[in-house]
Amino acid sequence: MLKISTAPHINSPVTTQSIMRDVIIALCPAILVALLFFGVGALKVIVTSVAACVLFEYLICRYLLKTNNTTTDYSAIITGILLAFNLPSNMPVWMILIGAFVAIGITKMAFGGLGKNIFNPALAGRVFLFISFPVQMTSWPKPQFLNFFNGDVETAATTLGILKHLGKGETPQLPDYWQMFVGNIGGCLGEVSAVALLLGLFYMLYRRIITWHIPFYYISTVFIITGIFWLITNDIRIEPVTQLLSGGLLLGAFFMATDYTTSPMTKKGQIIFAVGCGILTVIIRKYSAYPEGVSFAILIMNAFVPLIDRYTSQKIYGKGDK
Amino acid sequence: MNNKKTFSIGGIHPDKHKISSHIAISDAGLPAEVFIPVKQHIGSPAKILVQKGDKVKVGTLIADADGIISADVHSSVSGEVTKIEDIQSETGYLEQVITIRVEGDEFEPGIDRSPDIVSEISQNAEEIIEIIRGAGIVGMGGAGFPTPVKTTVPEDKKAEILIINGIECEPYLTADDRLMVEKAEQIVIGAKIINKALGIQNAVIAIDENKPQAVEIIRQITKRYVGVNVQVCKTKYPQGGERQLIQALTGKEVPAGKHPIDIGCIVQNVGTVFAVYEAVMKHKPLFERIVTVSGDDILNPSNFRVRIGTPASFLINKAGLKENSVGKVIFGGPMMGRAIVNMDAPVTKTTSGILVLPESEAYKPDETSCIRCGKCVAACPVGLQPYAIARSIRENDLNEAKRLSARECIECGSCAYTCPARIPLLDFCKLAKYEFKKRK
Amino acid sequence: MSHLIFSNILVLSSIALAAAVILYLVSKKFAVEENPLIDEIEGILPNANCGACGKAGCRDFAKSCANADEATFSGLFCPVGGNKVMKKIAELKGVSAAQKEDTVAVLRCNGTCKNAPDKVEYSGMKSCRLAAGVSVGRSGCPDGCLRFGDCVNVCRFGALHIDKNTGIPVVDETKCTSCGACVNICPRKLFEIRPKGKDNKRVYVACRNTQKGAMARKNCSAACIACMKCTKVCEQVSVENNLSYIPTSVSAEQYGQQLAEACPTGAIIYTGNKGIKENEQ
Description:
The complex is a heterotrimer of chains A (322), B (440) and C (281). Helix content of chain A is 60%, strand content 2%. Chain A is mainly α. Chain A has 2 domains: 16-136, no CATH class; 160-310, no CATH class. In chain A, strands 2-3 form a two-stranded antiparallel ribbon. The termini of chain A are far apart. Chain B starts with 24 loop residues before the first strand and ends with a helix. In chain B, strand 10 (203-208), helix 5 and strand 11 form a beta-alpha-beta unit. In chain B, helix 3 (175-182) runs parallel beside helix 5 (212-222), helix 4 crosses helix 7 and helix 10 packs across helix 13 (425-439). Chain B contains 13 helices and 17 strands.
């Protein structure tokens, strides 16, 4: 029997699954660094988070929505990894479970699952935990290179934390740029190592998973605004390179702000979105009570995505300027 | 003129699969019977001039154009008219055909079958257009718009540039490519002929950079012909789309709802230009064309010179079909061609290729949910938002689809090709256009 | 502390009061005089907003009714609400209502999976309108049901479903309001709104194929082959373009049984006969 169908009769080899697989591959360098610096604690957090996210999605699909199992598209794994990346390595397991539930159950599946959520699930999970358990969420174990089974280690403040509580004119004890670049600093699992995140970014760009627009405009906005502040006030607290390499900026700009579902479709929209994220990040870092503002900034801009999408449609061929 | 050009919005890069690009054009031979449809063009069907039992020769006029937007039809074989009836076309709908039983291969007198190339254009513009009309030439790229109408510039408009479309951006198809390699000089002379008919001195042959052989040969020949130039274009689908090609070459956009002539452009396919050359210089009506027979289930991918009306099954058997192939047979390319339901459907003036895809590629994959990746938006050569059009049609909101300019869709299929969730985005655009049409 | 609460109450109340006054004044100033009859009529209407009456929704229809005089009112009819609703509206207006016969949508095709088996395998979006554009359809009949159920999806009243055994849609006459949505959406124009008939007895030709007999039969065993046998039963039955048509004026009670029995292919369906169920052979 002959087969018929509508055109086109061929499809690009890229599928949702292959995209998600590539993102997971891009996250691998940062996972490796997390394991090297935070040892068994990191492993525990990542495994718990991924397993919980996949399990919640499976259960919700199976028993609540009664639809096809959507965990096979791997997106829950990415949410799990990103959530783990936003947690310190000594996070209690039950808290991770709560975070995973907020991320998958409330932020993603309650809106209809993959592609229909308004907010980035991993970030929503993190912010929920951050507000609910501020103490656990802000005590970061000191990184210990290749010391896997470090029992109870002393905690270290993050670079941004040090800067936030710095009095005017004081000179802080900051790690040097190299330490920050490699990742030998205190912080959440995935955000410490700039080099690992950059590797992931280059892989995603090479595989054409994302375009350079959002990461570039986000980071340059932060860099330029803090740079101007720094040149005017000469305040060490807002020195642009430190601002760039510390906190979750790179992780957020490379992996969270570029999330397909919660970012605009058109290039123009993506630029507006990224610049908005950048401005909000600096404002929150500089003026709010929190030392870090990346997750709030991205979540706030997520809410604007439908609006941005509506007003940034492309020029249509043969219809003049729109 | 040597910078590679391309259109500015959207586009995709599908795998080319041009497996037959190095296979020389060969004669497909004569089938036992040909089925010549009286409507192979846009417009009204031609009026039949023959009766059952009539003897015809190759090139005999068998159906006469009915009105301006119509085209003459000539016999492609010599023999006897055995039936005039309705048979299933490639889509399964009935179409009127003239069935001719092949006897020998006798040509109408006057057709010049020598291989000599004639380059002296002695006819004037009106005569050229009349010859083109008499030869039944239509746009051979796929649309089938009668060429004499296209080469007559309306009085209130002015032609500035003739664009010869040698892009052939569809994967698999190599008919135009081979034609340019083997009949380069004829195509260049054909361009001069159409130029004369239009009364202009400016023709550009646009060729994709993935056809280096054709580019080289045509470039050598254009050195000897003033007014015909070659423009190499970057390989990108759908560069062969009329509006996309005009934008790539001239930088100008054809306004929505208008025609290329409104901005002074005329686009002709290389196959059409070659047919014009043969009609004007060799007195040969359009009764054969080049057809690529290819696809993964074809043993010997080929470029055939095929008499119009030859059944598809004859060509597929000639090229060799893999054993137990029960895949999908497509008339045209894999992006815009149509899957056929009748293997015996005849090749027409607009059939550029016949593809046989294996069973593994024959099914449309299941659709999953949209992940809002924006690939369809980036791919659309018109600048539409296919994902939003799909959503509006799902919600039965035609006004929203209208606001999103779904009407401007050129149905190239780039959005559906590129969608990682395999959403049939083109189908939604087609539905939108279908509903618009019904509403009017 | 109590001072704080008191001042809060005071401030908020005064804001509320000011807002209320402003709202009242604005609504007074910009009030639109509208015929109160419109609201009343709209209340009676089914509010399905289906557009079957030819107006843009129920509100629009209500407006037309309210503004109509006796002559123009007789031209207005809400097929969903039917005679009952029109009578009520007429009472409100104090005019007499046009009474129409109860109607129902019938499917004029009997190309079931058995009668018209698949000849090609279609994959992709399940839409009749698309499939009709791609090719003649799975059965090969250029006028037959494509069996993807665009009509089922468009019906707002749940009156249509695809029968699992036959593959073609079935009309639930208790739910059908003859709004005409299926008539409009079907790319093959297979639905016809016909009178329900006395005791739900209807007789009609379930085929729209205009091909010659032999060709029609090649694709579907239940196709009308224009054999003219039905015209001998009742002379009102006409055959044009190789296709028989039974006008609604033919009495189903009188001729239905005979017509159905006369048809050699089963293209004529008579709903009064309990022995033969609709859409079955």
